[in-house]
Amino acid sequence: MLSRSVRLTIGALCSVLLTAECIQISQAQDLTVEDTDPVDVIWFPNPPYAMNEKGIPAGFEIDLWRMIAESRQIPYRIRKADSFEDLLAAISSNQADLAISGVLINENRSKAFRFSFPTASSDLKIYTVNSEEPTAVKLLRVLFSREVLLIFLGLILIACIFALPVWMMERHRPDLADKQKRHQLVLILQKTLLLSTDHTKRTKTRLISIGSLFARVLLTAYFASYILKVASSEQLSKKQNMIEEINFETLKDTTFAAIPGYIQTSILKSNGAKTIACDVAETCIQLLKTGQADAILDDMLTMQTTLPLMQGAKVSAASEKLMTLFMAFAISKDFSKDQRSLAINDAIARSYYDGSHAKLSRIWLRP
Q1: Helix (H/G/I), strand (E/B), else coil: 314
Q2: pLDDT tier at 32 (50, 70, 90 boundaries)?
Q3: How many CB atoms lie within 10 A of CB 93?
Q4: What's the confidence (pLDDT) of residue 26?
């Protein structure tokens, strides 16, 4: 028979093995519940990252999320936030697991929730109503400028100095004698202005025509230099008017249309700029069109996606790139402990080199 100590040892080992098995079963059950519980996704319109197409969420980040959820077999439910501030509140209070709205990566926000790997990048610019003159007005200004009047005067001088002497010397030629004087003069004037010399038969008139050719070339060169000067001065003026950095001392009298909760809005308010609230990019642009706002500080891709959708929106960038923006999925602190949040980051990283990110970028991100 086994001794008492041996029996106690065997009993202890069995107890340890049984306890370990129970723990593994419990962990497996917890993991199963975690994997099957759908991810609570919240989104808010912010073209081109998240858009509302007839009540159906669409856009770059929406499609990226769908691709990730399908490839990683992550169940989810998706709902729309009433505002961008509500989206931030939901993800900060763990009422949602993941937020999609082209959320900008920011140090202060990372204290309230977590970010996934960057999903996209863009540039921050200031946009204003395009105040350029119509092309017809520009053309009239050029036509009635002093330089163009001098060019017309030069053509008249060429006609008087070169065409008239040639006509007086050549008008008695047999091939011109049967024509009226007016027709003779028009023909020679036409030939002279078109840099032609085949209408002259005498040596003197040919020399005069050659002189008119050089005069016409000089006049053409003057006209070309004037056009080049106008084009370069207009381009220089545009460049000088472009804002190269945010200087709110010069913009203190400017009212910005801004979406509450945006990083851009925080930048404006922290520098004392005046703002008027709008909920999405379309309403911000509408405030700009109606004159209720003077400018918008926003993401370049958002503006380039939204402006073509709005008829008569003559809005353009009034600044150079002010800073680079990086977007990401916002992940609640509770969900960041879930293994699926790691799978989401892995899938985003993989999308950069398997071509899927580039494919979605060609569809939605058109800089």
Answers
A1: coil
A2: very low
A3: 13
A4: 45
In sequence order, the 6+-apart residues with CB closer than 8 A to the CB of 88 are 99, 103, 109, 112, 261, 330
Residues 6+ apart with CB under 8 A from 66: none
Does 255 or 15 have the greater pLDDT score? Answer: 255
Which residues, at least 6 apart from 134, have a Cβ–Cβ distance to it below 8 Å?
Answer: none
Fold classification of 4-120+328-364 is: D-Maltodextrin-Binding Protein; domain 2 (3.40.190)
**Taking the model in full, what pTM does it have?**
0.67
C-alpha distances out from residue 100 to 21, 31, 116, 270, 326, Å:
41, 26, 11, 26, 13
What stretches of 266-356 adopt beta strand conformation (E)? 274-277, 296-299, 315-317, 323-331
CA distances from 156 to 142, 164, 194, 333 (A): 19, 11, 14, 81
pLDDT band at 337, cuts 50/70/90?
very high
How far apart, in whole angstroms, are the C-alpha atoms of residue 229 and residue 231?
Answer: 6
Q: 280 with 80: CB under 8 angstroms?
A: no
- Per-residue CA distances from 68 to 71, 90, 260, 354, 366 (Å): 5, 22, 30, 13, 22
161 forms beta bridges with none
One-letter identity of residue 186: V
The answer to whether 57 touches 51, Cβ cutoff 8 Å, is yes
Over 50: is that where the pLDDT of 88 sits?
yes
CB atoms within 10 A of CB 34: 12
Question: How far is the CA of 213 from the CAs of 159, 190, 195, in angstroms?
Answer: 12, 12, 5
In this predicted structure, the answer to whether residue 189 has a pLDDT above a threshold of 70 is no
